[in-house]
Amino acid sequence: MIRRTLLAACAAIASFTMTPAGAQHLRIGLAEDPDILDPTLARTFVGRIVFASLCDKLFDIDAKLTIVPQLAAGHEWTDAKTLMIRLRPGVKFHDGEPLDAEAVKFSLERHLTMQGSFRRSEINSMDRIEVVDPLTVRIVLKEPFAPFIAQLTDRAGMILSPKAAQAAGAQFGNRPVCAGPFRFAERVAQDRIVVEKFDGYWDAANIHLSRITYQPIPDATVRLANLQAGALDLIERADSNDLPAVQRNRALRHTTVASLGYQGITFNVGHGPQANTPLGRDARLREAFDLSIDRAALNQVVNNGLFTITAQAVPPASPFHVPAIAAPARNLERARALVREAGAAQPVAVVLTVPNSPVNRQAGEVIQAMAREAGFDVRLNAMEFASSLQAAARGEFEAYYIGWSGRTDADGNLFSFVHSRGGQNDGRYANPEADRLLEAARVENDVEKRRSIYEQLNRIILLQDRPRLYLWHQAWIVAHTARLSGWVPNPDGLVRVQGLRLN
Q1: What domains, with CATH codes, occur in the chain?
Q2: pTM (2 d.p.)
Q3: How far apart are CA 482 and CA 493, in angstroms?
Q4: 262: number of Cβ within 10 Å
């Protein structure tokens, strides 16, 4: 392990020394290797970081979480179910093809209908999209849908070159063609993704970098070592325990911002043979597992106490957070009683899948030790991150330690994960009443009424069925060289390249 760590650091440093002095080549250290670079099929957070340079969206969010136009020039709701979007003129894809209304229609329909699409449940309220003229589309919804514009600020709003996508088919993610400030250059799995400046970008005056290399380095210590050595210019997640070292280094800068997402555990309650376990079948055991965990102590060990412990998917800053549902205190007596009440043979065997990084393994080991005291025998299954996502999508897990980067609207943190037809409902949780409430929240525009709906939903999924266990809301800790200017932190954690410059 030590030898691999040193080799990774040396390889990155060697790469750095071969770059001409003064070149606007930004190197970004990623905490994982992204999955497929196809906006329709992708689901990783680090993939979204790469997409921020490759694929512009119809809309974006700014640092204050205000929705702002990107590829769209403007929009208007003509009634509760009809949205008119006007496009920027003169925008081109990386292959030189024009980005027009036909391309928007193609991309949204692809997101909605392509086999394996993770965007389907995000925009399935869409009934049809019509081309009004070359720069205007009309989107007609099946029913009013409050979060629709918010959904278009992420991958569902990314527009692909129809020519390239049709030619590549399912292989589009191997060489994506979008309309972002950088075009795809190369990818070496587990090593690097390289993008190069696209001179035809519609906002080219705001792009100062010539090339970006994204390097997946799961070990936070190695990421920081590369940053300190000058082999990286920015790491998108510094470990909270490494923050003092960053603060002491005059050549580095850092920012910390509360995220929109969460870290938690997904239980397999209905997806294939691995749901047929005591934990998968009995909500009492899932409650006992939850009560065995001391969130405050876990947060202190893993995150230096910097994150916000929670019991729900929506962070406190959201208008849809439910203050009445707080993170439970550890209660071993109650946990042990629930295990006895469930009648399961003790210790209750649990396989907990964790993405294979030192921080994730440490969290898994602490959870393992805590749960043991309540009568659980937890075995850790460490997997490469993208492989763990694929395994979860196939139902090949019992419990899965996994985070979500978060969305501005509560629907983005809930629907896809706990609706019975949700695209990322890996554990196949299904409850008709939960489905009804999720659907009702989507068509309700009044904030107070939506909050009431989400409170009812939370009492079902968090206090009754417990298909998921939420641990904390992260903070994005980004560290970068002092030579980098133009960096603007955002609660969604993405690295937006507009305005960035190496001095």
Answers
A1: 2-31+181-258+476-502 (3.40.190.10), 59-165 (3.90.76.10), 262-473 (3.10.105.10)
A2: 0.88
A3: 19
A4: 25
